[in-house]
Design a protein that fits this description.
The protein is built from 22 helices and 17 strands. The longest helix is centred in the first third of the chain and has 34 residues, at 3-36. The protein is globular, with a radius of gyration of 31 Å. The chain starts with a helix and ends with a helix. It is α/β, with parallel strands linked by helices. It has five domains: 1-34; 37-261 and 341-420, Alpha/Beta hydrolase fold, catalytic domain (Rossmann fold, 3-Layer(aba) Sandwich), CATH 3.40.50; 262-338, no CATH class; 454-460 and 470-515, no CATH class; 524-585. Helix 19 packs across helix 20 (542-560) and helix 20 (542-560) packs antiparallel against helix 21 (564-579).
Length: 586
């Protein structure tokens, strides 16, 4: 055997020994990629509105359900291509979110459009003396205002038009063949805008975006509009769309990475150590923005700048600055009233909500599944992975996934709307095709939905014993704060997120707080009659019967307020009754 044969055989055996490990590694990678692949899941009402479309075959107008329209025209949201494949080394929501933060810093000042477009800034003066910046792309100098459809974009917390997720969407929307126009509405004090009043912005305040929409409509009266918001901007734009209802100037709206319920999202965020780190990082950004405008903000008499700059969590900052500036009594009240989820049933334009289940900031607990299913205008698209405004895909050339499906939805809506005659454009979002009429929304009160009174009774039953008289009086106040359903009261929703109660003119002296009517005396025969519920209580545990008796005594004395002798007699009688309860009931 020659030396060449020996070397060939040796290298062949080495190569053969490497084939199996390589094949095993590739197989494991393939299995891993199949596990982390994230199909898009759509949630919507059983019946969605029918929007008018032009049949491409017959060129006649017909109606199509919104859900079917999305499934047909948006392959990135429904079908075999509606799958998000995360980057191999960014398959976790935290990794996606952290990478997004670093990428935003990297691309902050980069010319990201690669098509010759640049932002053209337009400063808009507000009625209260403040100002916001509108960044157009393409701007009027490059492309004069005409009938080109416009996408109105709202950024996230302390962000602006420079954010990478904004630029990714702008680059996707402004490219051919449609060449739509985008305008980014920068909040007060953001993206290099000078703060000219002591008021900043918050998640509940929709006055600025409504004023900006009115300005855009005056500039481009013939251009159809679609609104899209990210994170905090998604909460603001969705809340504004719900407040405007049928008067909304958008033909459609999109919400991406929305926290929906600020109170739930805040509590979920601060539940874990990683969430507290996110909160601290966002607080640093808020304090940096606050510090850059401290000369204007210090005019607020109730805000202590030094105290604000010592905040360590986002709830601390909101409690020391935001809720004071916007006249909320507590930070939880600001979170409740500023949430966009209660306004979803009032939306009257096609709405697409895009969310990642593993979003560590806009937590999945706050996802408004019931509100989405109750509104035939709304569709929720979720993926298991994606993080907060991430959705990074590709292992070598990394790019975001979400601009593709969002662009498909925008294009489908604009093209369908522009293909219709003017009379049908006016009725584009008319609720047609529903078997039942839409249920009108009740007025959104400045507090949560009242708890059912019988639940409060059960809570008092379980917790009031062994407490002081002061604790019991607190329970009574809580019970009296439940609005009387027979009293007609409605509210006017303000643009700052608060609600002003307005008494009904037909009922004099009507107010938000209605004291309950005095309870009528209950006959003793009804109180002392053995009931099936009492039988079950005695058979389970005799202590439950004692609690029930003490509860009745306490409520009876508080309600009818007989003389002391009655209290003594009733106490003696019920004590005797408790001792003989088993014999009497048997």
């Amino acid at each position: 055997m020659s030396i060449v044969d020996i070397e060939t055989g040796m290298f062949g055996s080495i190569a053969a020994s490497l084939v199996y490990p390589a094949a095993a590694i590739l197989a494991l990678l393939w299995i891993y990629m199949q596990i982390v692949r994230s199909p898009v899941v759509l949630t919507h009402a059983h019946e969605t509105i029918h929007i008018p479309i032009v049949d491409p075959d017959t060129h006649r107008i017909r109606r199509m359900p919104l859900s079917e329209f999305v499934k047909k025209h948006c392959p990135g949201l429904y079908g075999p291509k509606a799958v998000y494949h995360p980057t191999l080394w960014l398959s976790n929501g935290h990794l996606q979110t952290i990478f997004t933060s670093f990428y935003n810093d990297k691309m902050k000042n980069a010319n990201y459009f690669n098509n010759g477009f640049r932002y053209e800034r337009d400063h808009l003066q507000l009625p209260d003396g403040g100002n916001i910046a509108l960044d157009w792309c393409p701007g009027p100098n490059r492309h004069p205002f005409d009938e080109t459809p416009i996408v109105v974009i709202l950024h996230g917390l302390t962000g602006g038009s420079h954010e990478s997720y904004i630029k990714d969407l702008v680059r996707e929307v402004t490219k051919g063949p449609q060449y739509y126009r985008c305008v980014v509405v920068n909040f007060r004090g953001c993206a290099g805008t000078k703060l000219t009043t002591s008021q900043l912005y918050c998640a509940a305040y929709t006055g600025d975006i409504k004023f900006a929409l009115d300005y855009i409509r005056r500039k481009c009266p013939e251009s159809p509009l679609i609104g899209i918001g990210f994170s905090l901007g998604a909460n603001i734009i969705l809340k504004a769309v719900g407040e405007m209802g049928s008067d909304c100037p958008f033909i459609a709206a999109i919400s991406v990475g929305n926290p929906y319920d600020l109170l739930i999202s805040s509590r979920a965020l601060h539940r874990s150590l990683v969430g507290k780190i996110y909160s601290a990082a966002m607080t640093v950004s808020l304090k940096s923005l606050f510090r850059s405008h401290i000369d204007a903000i210090k005019d607020q008499e109730l805000i202590d700048p030094d105290h604000v700059l010592k905040a360590r969590r986002i709830t601390d900052f909101d409690d020391r600055a935001t809720r004071i500036a916007f006249r909320y009594r507590t930070v939880d009240e600001y979170y409740r009233l500023g949430s966009s989820a209660p306004h979803i049933p009032n939306v009257r334009v096609p709405l697409l909500c895009l969310h990642a289940i593993d979003d560590p900031i806009a937590h999945k607990e706050a996802l408004p599944y019931h509100e989405i299913r109750s509104n035939p205008y709304a569709i929720l698209a979720t993926t298991q992975q994606g993080g907060h405004l991430g959705w990074w895909s590709g292992n070598f050339t990394i790019k975001r996934w979400f601009p593709g499906p969002v662009h498909e939805f925008i294009t489908a809506m604009f093209e369908t709307y522009l293909s219709l005659p003017p009379d049908l454009q006016k009725t584009f979002a008319t609720p047609i095709g529903l078997s039942a009429p839409l249920v009108p929304s009740r007025a959104i009160l400045p507090f949560s939905t009242p708890i059912d009174p019988h639940i409060i009774h059960k809570e008092i039953h379980a917790t009031s014993f062994g407490e002081s008289d002061n604790d019991l009086s607190d329970s009574e106040v809580e019970l009296e704060s439940v609005p009387d359903p027979n009293t007609h009261t409605h509210t006017n929703n303000n643009t700052d997120g608060t609600a002003t109660p307005v008494p009904d003119p037909t009922s004099a002296g009507a107010s938000r707080s209605h004291p309950t009517q005095p309870a009528q005396p209950v006959p003793a025969s009804q109180l002392l009659r053995p009931t099936p519920a009492l039988h079950r209580a005695v058979s389970r545990q005799s202590s439950a019967t004692h609690i029930y008796a003490l509860f009745l005594i306490k409520k009876l004395v508080e309600t009818i307020r007989y003389k002391g002798i009655v209290v003594v007699l009733l106490s003696w009688f019920f004590g005797y009754y408790m001792g003989k309860s088993r014999r009497l009931l048997n």
